[in-house]
Amino acid sequence: MFDLYQSQRAMRAMRQTAMQRGVVAILDVGTSKIACLILRFDPTPMPTEGVGPMAGHSAFRIIGAATTRSRGVRFGEIDAMHETERAIRTAVQGAQKMAQVRVDHVIAAVSGGGPRSYGLAGQIALSGQQVADRDVAEVLSACEMPNIGEGREVLHAQPVNFALDHRSGMNDPRGQVGDILACDMHMLTVDSHVIANLIHCIKRCDLELAGLASGAYVSGIASLLEDEQELGAACIDMGGGATGLSIFWRKHLIYADAVAMGGAQVTSDISKGLQVSLATAERMKTLHGGVVATSMDDRDMIELGGESGDWDHDRRTVSRAELIGIMRPRVEEILEEIRARLDAAVFEALPSQQIVLTGGGSQIPGLDTLAPRILGQQVRIGRPVRVAGLPEKATGAAFASAVGLCLFAANPQDEWWDFDIQPERHGARSLRRAMRWFKENW
C-alpha cells in the first residue's frame, strides 16, 4: 500500500534536506532534450506571500548546467527506460562536472501523462474564533474529492482562494476572526504509470526524487509576467513531443492540459513529405522553416542533401514555400487543439486574455503572425525570466520548463500535503473517502 499524502510529504522533507545541504538538481526530461541545472541556495529563507509551512523562498544561483539529446522519450513520456536512463546520467554528470559538486536530490517536471484539472470547494464553521493552522488544514480536508478515475495520480492540489464570511480573495486567512471559513482548491491529476516510470528511471540513476511538478505549470511560472498571472493569462509551451497549456489567475494555476503533438511531429511531416532523414528534416526546420510564406519564398531554393550515395537524390532542391506548405498544417492543427482546450476552460471569462507562447516550437518564424488568427489577438512570444548564473545558451524559450522548475524549487506554492492533516482524528467524510481511494489504488 502506498499513501500519496505521506509520500508527497516525504518528498517535501527531502527537498528541505537538499536545501539545507545547499544544492539541488533540476531535471527537465523532454522529448527533444534533457536538461539538468544545479542550484546553490542561500541558507537564509526569505518570507513571501502565502499560507502553510512551505511559504517563503530562498535566493539561489545556477552553478552547473548541461543538456543532451533526449532518447527513449515520446510525447513527453518514457518509452525506452534504458535509453532515457543513459541520457539522464549524461546530463546530470555534465552539470556536476561544471558545478564541481555531487548532487543526490533532483526535482523533475512531467510534461506528458494527460493532465486533467478539477476545481474543489469546502467550508467549515469557526464560531467566531481566530483562524489557525489546524483550521486551514481542516477546510482543505473538507473539499469534496471528485471521482478522478483509476490509474490517475494527484500531482498538484493547491488552495487558490480563501473566503472568511463575506470576504473573499484571501491568500492567508490565519489570525483573522470569522464564523465561516471556505476554500477553493485546484487539483491536477496525471497518469500514474507515467509518474511511476519517471520515478523508477530517476532511482536507476542513483538519485532521490525531491519533488515533481507539471511541465505546463512551471513553464507558466517562468514565462508569464507578474501582472499577467494576476489578471489572467494562458501559457502555451510548445515542446518537442507535447504542447502544454496552463492558465493562471490571481497568481495561481487554475487549469492545465496538454496536447500530444509538438515539434517532433512537424519534423516527422517534413521527413515524410520530402523523403529525407529525420536529422535532415530537423536541420531544415531549424534553418529554413516557417509558417507564413511570401512571394520571395518561391525563389528561395533549399538543397536537401543526404548520404544515400545517389547523386541526383542527394542534390535535390525544394523551395522554402514547399517547406512552409508542409509545416503550416501541423502547426495550425496544434494551435486549433489548444484553442479547443481554451474554450473548454472558459478562458474568455478572465479579465485579461493574454496568451504567451513559449517552448522550442514557439521559435518557428511566422508563428507570431499565425497564432493570433487562431488563438486571439493578445498573443506574444515569451522567454523565461533571467535567473542568476544561467548560461547564455539556456536563456531561450526552449528552456522555459527548466527555468520554471528552478523558481518552483525556490518558491514552492502551498499544496494540500503541506498541512498536517490527521484523517483518523477528523470527521470529514470527503477526506476519509479520498484517503481510502488513494490507498486502494496505489
Automatic annotation (TrEMBL):
State the annotated membrane topology for this chain.
Peripheral membrane protein
Q: Which Gene3D superfamilies match?
A: 3.30.420.40
**GO-annotated biological processes:** FtsZ-dependent cytokinesis
CDD domains linked: ASKHA_NBD_FtsA
Per UniProt, residues of the SHS2 domain are 24-223
Give an example GO cellular component term for this record. Answer: cell division site
Keywords assigned: Cell cycle, Cell division, Cell membrane, Membrane
Q: Which residues form a coiled coil?
A: none
Q: Which compartments does it reside in? A: Cell membrane
InterPro entries noted in UniProt: ATPase_NBD, Cell_div_FtsA, FtsA/MreB, SHS2_FtsA
The annotated subunit structure for this chain is: Self-interacts. Interacts with FtsZ.
Q: Give the matching NCBIfam families.
A: ftsA
Q: Which PANTHER family match?
A: CELL DIVISION PROTEIN FTSA, CELL DIVISION PROTEIN FTSA-RELATED
Q: Which family does it belong to?
A: Belongs to the FtsA/MreB family.
Q: What does this protein do?
A: Cell division protein that is involved in the assembly of the Z ring. May serve as a membrane anchor for the Z ring.
Name the chain's protein.
Cell division protein FtsA
